[in-house]
Each structure stands twice: as structure tokens, then as C-alpha cells.
Specification:
heterodimer, A: 546 residues, alpha+beta, seven-stranded mixed beta sheet, five-stranded mixed beta sheet, 22 strands, globular, B: 318 residues, mainly alpha, flat, peptide transmembrane transporter activity (chain A), SBP_5_dom (chain A)
Chain lengths: 546, 318
């Protein structure tokens, strides 16, 4: 029998044997086993070996893979928007995080299969009640300015995220963390007010890079003073134009293959990015939208990478704004919406239909609720009850932050709702403008990026007072149900606990969340070992050029 | 001449003041928006109030406007809220890029369209005339965004001869200029050729050309010596009108090819409500429009000495 070990060498968490037992009995899948075991501090290698005994290895889709020996050197050109990234804990664009991901590192690493691995933290040991987490840090890490990386850096960052004045989304994500304590030169301990199982996975969120302990003293402007522990250093940076990272000597880990990564801002129009890729002017596109898919498929020397992802659109309503403060109005809109049609027409069916509760069928804690039924007559009745016998006029704000498909989806909802008497006026605005008002408009379309766990999104977006609570949803029963689910280790029991969570979100009718959109990107044929990541987190140190 | 130049200068300043007032009114009426842009969306209301006070945003509107004008006149153009860079660093580079694009376009468009126009206009109804007219009608009716797509599909995706984006990230490249220049030149060449053709045809039908013909002058001499100079007045107006268009009207082409010029700067500034950049770009545009007008007046005078400076009404050529 294969033996399961922890990264720290300490004893296994008491929940691990039961987990292994469930795998052996076939009650949970290998993926669920690997992920949960990783959170509990079990080494990935031992967990993989253990799981392999129950049938084959785990493979992820969307890989620009090579069987050849990697080649060193070369300059890779990556096109994406070059965003401001003054304070990495505050960014609201994943693009920005892909830049600093070359220089700044995280405590943990979540791979494209959603399995958590050690990174700056060598190991972690949760207490039995999951309320105390001890992280052991690497001792061989040096900052690019020569300082040694230690527990002070980690304490500085986590304290900064959770302090009451913090504007970072991390404040909400780590709301359960009541304190962080330095328990050794290379060890920190997190104290939680309630049990949370997914702490290691959450530490790889794009707003969680570990900054140098003197970040604030030195002006709190990372590009001006780009100290990092990562394999590359920032050599050039102009917002809206370009950024260059060069390989740095003295990196603690395995040296990366590329000499240099050049990020080029070509504006928001993906068609010109595809043209540049076709002409060999760039090697990697940040993303391809559904609109360019056919064109990309026809290009020679280009690899199209695709994958399922829990990325979605929330056509959400603010529960304290007229007329959406009347639940009947919101219910009417949900009853009129045709989620399948939005997926089929606006996204050409390339995804999975969703159920208005922001939990995806391919996320581990998903619980299947009865399917939604469209009912226009009932929607009309609800509107009449709410005092809108002659229908209702509302404005829906769309920012097309990820492309035209957002507007296409909104237009189908517009047609759906017209049948029930809700006349939707679309207010289309530029993407960059949208992010300034995204949580202010009473009714708008917000793109939500993939999170490996649904609870992470729910934690961020639907708790009272959360920084990113754009619906102003406030329901103690929902929060109690979520708290309960967050602390359950057993994947099966967790999924059952999610029933109440999903139901309370669906019943509150705060959003039409029509479908889960597959993701696509395209890279040149000479780019090797580039993997699509469901959250668009692109780590470049294993990528090489043929 | 001095009086004329003085008049023109006053005209230019008046136009700039008018434009600046409108732009300022539109962009800086909402002071809270300005503070959010400068300090970022995570700034607190207190920080924004403090910043607004420190920067004199609570002064009367007219005073703020005058102060801003003074800053513009003295070269204190401020920092872009999107690019986080001094506008005085940003703008010249972008202007130069667009200037280069405009120059190349003019260098292709002017000779080509004049030759086509003259050839067509010399003998109305000839096969050459028909071909040129057809070409003009087709190119005028296809908008730039359509020809950009069409030419990219042909030269980038099908033939693979030309680069699809003109970002110039690996340094300057003539090849990257070809497509944007082609799109711009195609659009305006047809129009200019048509104007030249009409103007040439009109001159060729005038009595003095008939006289020259009857005197037995050679066709070449008639065209170059007698007709061309008069026939060029209308095309010169069009060419001069193209210059401001080439500066700001190229937005579509610059954005399509991701060319980092004045057009994309203005476009991105507008998308990001980059107040100071929009204001300064607007002022620069006014300067360009007024100076090209001045230049076109001077060229008129050279082409047609009957035009007198400062006596527009009587000159009869406008």
C-alpha cells in the first residue's frame, strides 16, 4: 500500500484516513481526493501515487505540450493589456497579476488541475478543528535586493490584507483570519475565528502575492521598486504600452527557460491580437473570445487551447435599489430569463448552463438542484402583484470587459424579459469605465473570473459588507450555511451542505447567472509547455520556445 | 502680409480659447470624477476632498478655467491619469508617430491621385477617365474599417506577406507601416482623384485653353504650363483638409492596427476618461487645424497670385 505523507513530516491530519477510505470505496473522485488531501498538507507526490493505485494519472486539458527536451533562451512576446499595478493587493485585473507573477511569488501554488502545491510555503498543518494553520516557509529564498525572505514578510502581507482599513478584496476573503503570528524565523501561524478548509488554495488568489516587508516604507509603488522573490525582474514598464521581465540570477528555484518576456499592449480589440499572432509578431495571446474562434482555428502554426472554467456573467440586481428592492420584480426577471438560449446564442453553446446561484457543476462542492423552469406567465403575474401591471422600464449596464459576448447575452435577456413586460434598456460603456462603476449600477452585467472553489466566490461576493458584494445581498441564513460548508472536510458532506447555500442564493433571485463560459486562448506553435489555466493565472517559468 | 499673419494668429488663439472652454466645461464640471481618476478608485472620500482642495478645485469655475489655460500656455500639462506619465513626455512621441503615418499617406496619395485625376480630366469620357471614376467611387464608398478588414484578410491571413499589427514593439519597421498607409491612402486617393479630375475637366473646357490649343501648343505644354496650376487649387484645399483628418480621423485605422499614435492616444484617453490628455490633445488638434489652414492659404496665393491676403471677400476664390 502506498503511504500518504505530509510535506512537513508531521502526522497526518485526522481526516486524511477517512478521505483515503472514501477514495478506495469510490465515493469520491481522484480529483476531489487530491485537492482535499493537498489542503490538509499531504504531499502531492504521495497523494498522486496513492490515487494512481485507483486508476491512472490526472491530466488536464488545454496544454501546449512538448515531449522534447526544453530549450533554454529566447524572448517571448505576450499580448495583453498592461494595467496599473501599483499595489498588487489592490488590483482588480487578472492581467496585471500575470505580469507581477513573474517577480512576485505566493505562499502556495494552485495548478491547472486545481491541486494546491507548496511554493514559498514548504508545508502547512491545519489543526484538527481547521482553525489554526501552521505554515513552514522556505529558508533558501532571497529577495532580488539581497534580503533574506522570512516570516516577517508573510506577517506583514497578511496583516495588511486583514486590517479593518484594507481596501483589498483579501480583507473579505480572509475575514475568518483573526490573527497572524510569527512562530519562528521561517514559520507563521494563522488563527481563524471559524474553520476554513481551503486556506492554502485561497493563498494563490491573484491579489495575494507576497511583497517585501518594507513595501509600504518604500513608497507602496511596486513597479517603481520592483523587489521580488521570483525568477524574473521587471526591466521596463509603461501602462498601456509595454512591460519587460528579464531572467534574474540567483533565483532560489529551478531557473526558468526564457531569457525575457515582453508584454505588449495592443489595445482591447482581440482581432488585431489574432492578426499579430498570425503574422508572427507575438507568441501568446492572453485570451481569444468566442468571436475570433473560427478565425483562430484556421490559422496555421497556431495552437488553440481550450478548457472548462468557472468563469461567468452575473446579470445582477442590487437588492436595495428601486425597483429591485421588491423581490417579486427580481423573481419575474429570473423567471423570464432563458439561460440555455443565452448560452446557445451568445456563447455558441461553448459552455455549461448555470442555475443562478454561482456554483458550477464542475466545482467540487456543487450540489445538483432541480432544473430551472422558464415561466413567463408567472413572471407577468409577479410584476402585476408588485404594481407593474403595464410592465416596467429598467436600465442594464454592460461593460463588455471580456468581449462582445457580454452584450450579446444582455440582448437575449432583453428579448426574454420583453415577453414578460420588463423593458430593458442597455447602457453599454467602455470596459475600463465599467470597472469604476461595476458595484454601483443597480442592474448590470459583471464578469466573474474562475475560482477553483465556489465558496471562494460566494465568500467574496455575497456576504454582508464584503468589499465585492455588488448585489448588496444580506442574508444571515445564507452566511450560516456557507460557514458550515466551509468547515467540512469530507467532499461528499460538503456538497450536501451546499444545498442550503445554493438554494438561498437562487431563491433570493439576486442575479441571472446564465452559463459557465469555456475559455480559449491561442499561442504560436513554437511556444511549448504553456498551459491554459482556468483562472487565467499564467506562470511562465516552465514555458520555452522551440 | 504682416496684417494677414497677425489676423491669422488672432484667429488661431480665438479658436483655441473657444475649443478649450468647451472641452474644459465638459470634462471638468464633475470634479469628483477627476479626483477618482487621479487618486484611483480605492481612494477614500477624505483623500479626494483633500486633493481637490489642494489643487484648487473648489475655486469658482472661471478661475479654474483661467488657471488651466495658464498652465497650458506655460507648458504645465500635468500627468496622464491612465498612463501615469507626464503628458509632455507622452504626446510628442505619439504626434511624431502619427505625423509619420500622415506623411507616408500623403506621399502615396498626393502623386497618385493627382496623376490619376489629371489623366482622367484631360480627356473626359475616355477609357482612362472611366476606370479612374470607377476606382474613385469604389474607394470612396468603402469605409476605412471595412478596407482594413479586407486588406488584413488578404495580406495577413491569406498571403501572409505583411504583419497584422503595427505596434512597432521591436523597434521601427517600415513593413508595419504598409497596411495602415494603404488603408488611409486608398480611402483618400479616390476622393482626391475625383476632385482633381473635375477641376482639370473644368479648366480644360475654359476659353484660354481653347485659345492655347488653337495657337497650336503641344498637349503636354497645355497641361503643364496652362491648365495644371489653375486646376490644382481645388485639390490643394482637399489635401490641406486631409491633414487634420490624418491626425484625428485616423483613430479607426490606428486602433485597428494597434498603431501607437495620436489617434490611439485620444481613443484610449477617452475610454479611460483621462481628462488632462483629452484636453491637451484637443488643443493640439486645434493648433494643427489652424496651421494647416494657414499653410493652405499661402499655397493658394502661390498658385493664384490674384488672391490677396486679408481680402478674402473680393478675391473670389473661396
Amino acid at each position: 500500500m502506498f503511504k500518504l505523507r505530509t510535506n512537513s513530516g508531521r502526522a497526518l491530519h485526522p481526516a486524511v484516513p477517512a478521505l483515503a477510505d472514501q477514495l478506495a470505496k469510490g465515493e469520491i473522485g481522484r480529483r476531489d481526493f487530491l485537492r482535499t488531501a493537498a489542503w490538509l498538507g499531504v504531499s502531492a507526490a504521495s497523494a498522486q501515487a496513492f490515487a494512481a493505485a485507483f486508476g491512472g494519472a490526472l491530466m488536464a486539458p488545454g496544454r501546449a505540450e512538448a515531449a522534447e527536451v526544453p530549450k533554454k533562451g529566447g524572448s517571448l512576446r505576450f499580448t495583453c493589456q498592461i494595467q496599473e499595478m501599483k499595489d498588487p493587493a489592490l488590483v482588480s485585473w487578472i492581467e496585471a497579476s500575470n505580469l507581477y507573477r513573474n517577480s512576485l511569488e505566493f505562499l502556495t501554488l494552485v495548478d491547472a488541475d486545481n491541486v494546491t502545491h507548496p511554493y514559498l510555503a514548504l508545508s502547512w498543518d491545519p489543526s484538527e478543528d481547521l482553525k489554526t494553520w501552521r505554515f513552514k516557509l522556505r529558508q533558501d529564498v532571497k529577495w532580488s535586493n539581497g534580503d533574506a525572505f522570512n516570516a516577517d514578510d508573510v506577517v506583514f502581507n497578511i496583516k495588511r490584507w486583514i486590517q479593518p482599513t484594507s481596501k483589498s478584496s483579501n480583507r473579505t476573503a480572509f475575514a475568518a483570519v483573526s490573527d497572524v503570528e510569527k512562530t519562528g524565523e521561517h514559520e507563521v501561524t494563522l488563527h481563524l475565528s471559524r474553520p476554513v478548509l481551503s486556506i492554502p488554495e485561497m493563498l494563490y488568489a491573484y491579489t495575494c502575492p507576497i511583497l517585501h516587508r518594507k513595501f509600504e516604507e518604500q513608497g507602496a509603488d511596486w513597479p517603481k521598486n520592483p523587489i521580488g522573490t521570483g525568477p524574473y525582474s521587471l526591466a521596463e514598464y509603461n501602462v498601456g504600452q509595454r512591460a519587460t521581465f528579464k531572467r534574474r540570477e540567483g533565483y532560489w528555484g529551478e531557473p526558468p527557460y526564457l531569457d525575457e518576456i515582453r508584454y505588449i499592449d495592443m489595445g482591447a480589440d482581440v482581432t488585431s491580437h489574432v492578426a499579430a499572432l498570425a503574422a508572427g509578431q507575438v507568441d501568446v495571446l492572453y485570451r481569444v473570445t468566442i468571436a475570433e474562434l473560427d478565425l483562430v482555428k484556421r490559422l496555421p502554426n497556431v495552437q488553440l487551447l481550450t478548457g472548462h472554467a468557472a468563469q461567468t456573467l452575473c446579470l445582477r440586481m442590487q437588492v436595495d435599489q428601486k425597483p429591485f428592492d421588491d423581490k417579486r420584480v427580481r423573481q419575474a426577471i429570473l423567471l423570464a430569463a432563458d439561460n440555455q438560449k443565452m448560452l446557445d446564442l451568445a456563447y455558441r453553446g461553448m459552455g455549461v448552463v448555470a442555475e443562478d446561484h454561482h456554483v458550477a457543476p464542475f466545482q467540487p462542492e456543487y450540489f445538483k438542484l432541480p432544473p430551472l423552469k422558464r415561466d413567463v406567465a408567472k413572471a407577468k403575474q409577479l410584476l402585476a402583484d408588485a404594481g407593474y401591471k403595464d410592465g416596467l422600464d429598467v436600465t442594464l449596464t454592460v461593460g463588455n470587459t471580456q468581449g462582445r459576448w457580454e452584450q450579446d447575452t444582455a440582448q437575449i435577456l432583453q428579448q426574454n424579459c420583453a415577453e414578460a413586460g420588463v423593458r430593458i434598456k442597455l447602457n453599454v460603456m467602455p470596459a475600463t469605465e465599467y470597472w469604476n462603476i461595476w458595484n454601483k449600477a443597480p442592474f448590470s452585467v459583471t464578469y466573474w473570473a474562475h475560482r477553483p472553489l465556489a465558496v471562494m466566490t460566494l465568500d467574496l461576493a455575497y456576504r454582508k459588507g464584503a468589499e465585492w458584494n455588488e448585489t448588496h445581498f444580506d442574508d444571515p441564513t445564507f452566511e450560516a450555511a456557507l460557514d458550515k460548508a466551509l468547515g467540512i472536510i469530507d467532499p461528499k458532506a460538503r456538497s450536501q451542505a451546499m444545498e442550503a447555500v445554493e438554494r438561498s442564493l437562487q431563491d433570493a433571485a439576486i442575479m441571472v447567472q446564465p452559463y459557465w463560459a469555456d475559455e480559449f486562448t491561442a499561442v504560436s506553435a513554437k511556444v511549448k509547455d504553456y498551459r491554459i489555466h482556468p483562472a487565467h493565472y499564467f506562470k511562465m517559468d516552465k514555458v520555452w520556445l522551440a | 502680409m504682416t496684417r494677414y499673419a497677425l489676423g491669422k494668429a488672432i484667429e488661431m488663439v480665438a479658436a483655441m480659447v473657444a475649443v478649450s472652454f468647451v472641452v474644459f466645461l465638459i470634462l471638468e464640471a464633475n470634479v469628483d470624477g477627476v479626483a477618482v481618476k487621479v487618486l484611483g478608485q480605492f481612494s477614500t472620500p477624505d483623500q479626494r476632498q483633500l486633493w481637490l482642495r489642494e489643487n484648487g478645485y473648489f475655486d469658482p469655475f472661471f478661475l479654474r478655467y483661467l488657471r488651466w489655460l495658464w498652465h497650458f500656455a506655460t507648458g504645465q500639462w500635468g500627468e496622464s491619469t491612465h498612463y501615469r506619465e507626464a503628458i509632455l513626455n507622452l504626446l510628442p512621441e505619439r504626434l511624431a508617430a502619427t505625423g509619420l503615418l500622415a506623411l507616408c499617406t500623403l506621399a502615396v496619395m498626393v502623386p497618385l491621385s493627382l496623376i490619376l485625376g489629371v489623366l482622367a480630366g484631360v480627356r473626359e469620357g475616355s477609357p482612362i477617365d472611366r476606370v479612374v471614376t470607377l476606382f474613385s467611387v469604389v474607394t470612396i464608398s468603402v469605409p476605412e474599417f471595412a478596407s482594413a478588414v479586407f486588406l488584413s484578410a488578404l495580406f495577413v491571413f491569406s498571403l501572409g506577406w505583411l504583419p497584422g499589427a503595427s505596434t512597432m514593439t521591436s523597434g521601427f519597421s517600415w513593413r508595419e507601416l504598409v497596411l495602415p498607409v494603404m488603408v488611409l491612402a486608398l480611402y483618400s486617393t479616390g476622393y482626391l482623384a475625383r476632385i482633381t479630375r473635375a477641376s482639370m475637366a473644368e479648366v480644360m473646357a475654359s476659353p484660354y485653353i481653347r485659345t492655347a490649343l488653337m495657337k497650336g501648343a503641344s498637349p503636354a505644354r497645355i497641361v503643364f504650363r496652362h491648365a495644371l496650376r489653375n486646376a490644382l487649387i481645388a485639390p490643394v484645399t482637399v489635401i490641406m483638409l486631409q491633414v487634420p483628418w490624418l491626425l484625428s480621423g485616423v483613430i479607426v485605422v490606428e486602433v485597428f492596427f494597434a498603431y501607437k499614435g495620436f489617434g490611439t492616444l485620444l481613443y484610449e484617453a477617452s475610454l479611460n476618461s483621462d481628462v488632462y490628455v483629452i484636453e491637451d490633445c484637443a488643443m493640439v488638434s486645434v493648433v494643427v487645424v489652424v496651421s494647416t489652414q494657414l499653410a493652405s492659404d499661402l499655397i493658394y496665393a502661390w498658385l493664384n497670385p490674384r488672391i490677396e491676403f486679408g481680402r478674402k471677400a473680393g478675391a473670389g476664390t473661396r
